[in-house]
Structure formats: structure tokens, C-alpha cells
Amino acid sequence: MEPTALVIFFHDYGSNGDDLIARAEMIRLASPDAAFMAHHAPSQIPRMAAAYQWWPIKTFSMAECAAGAAAAAPALDAFITSELERAELASARLVLVGFSPGTMMSLYVGLRR
User: Fold this and answer.
1) Hey, which of 34, 66, 82, 109 would disulfide with 5, CB 3.0 to 4.6 Å?
2) Domain at 33, CATH number
């Protein structure tokens, strides 16, 4: 069966997409025709296996978060576009779900799409 919607999960700092994809089973009950995926942030945290970050966090300042989200956004936006095209779905059939910095990325990219 072809999916009628696409749900993409974006993880927290120091995590990875595999940590959130298990949540798909809870949502699948309400959306059995949706496809679910989780995306790893673009850079691995040095010296931490399977730990990724959307941007390096040093100060937790608003300026750092805004600059980090802006830097990570183009690749994430391209990924979303690619996945929608692959699934042959319109943007209106997309749900972005995030946790902590993953939520920031969902809002930053999602609202600009």
C-alpha cells in the first residue's frame, strides 16, 4: 500500500534517529497509512558513538541556536523535499515531529516550507 502521509522524526542533541523511530508504532494506530522515518542530525558528536547534533552547542544562547538552525536547515529541507518526492506526496501530507533541538529544526524548516 502506498503511504498517504509522511511523518519524519528529528531527535534531540546527542541522540540519533533510531531513538525516536520506535515512537512511530504509537502514532501508527491513528495513521495506519502513513510512512514513518527518522533522520540523523548532520554531524556526529566527537568521541561519542551514535550521537549526533544539529549544530554544536556551546552556550545555549539564542544567537547560537538561531545560527545553528539556519546552518542545518538547507540540508534538512532538501532531505524533506527528496523524501516527499520519493513518496509522491504533497507537502500538505507531511508531519514533522521533533524533540528539543529536533523540535527547533522541525519548526524552523517546517514553517518556511
Assistant:
1) 34
2) 3.40.50.1820
Q: Do the strands 94-98 and 5-10 form a parallel or antiparallel pair, or are they unpaired? A: parallel
Provide the residue range defining the domain that includes 54.
5-112
C-alpha cell recorded at residue 20: 525516536
Closest CA relative to residue 38, chosen from 79, 91, 71: 79
Q: What total of structural domains would you count in the chain? A: 1
**Model confidence, pTM:** 0.90
Q: What is the pLDDT of residues 79-112, one digit of tens each?
A: 999 999 999 999 999 999 999 999 999 999 999 9
In this predicted model, what pLDDT tens digit does every residue of 24-77 receive, in sequence order? 888 887 888 999 999 899 999 999 989 999 999 999 899 999 999 999 999 999
Task: Look at residue 20 and give its three-state secondary structure.
Answer: helix
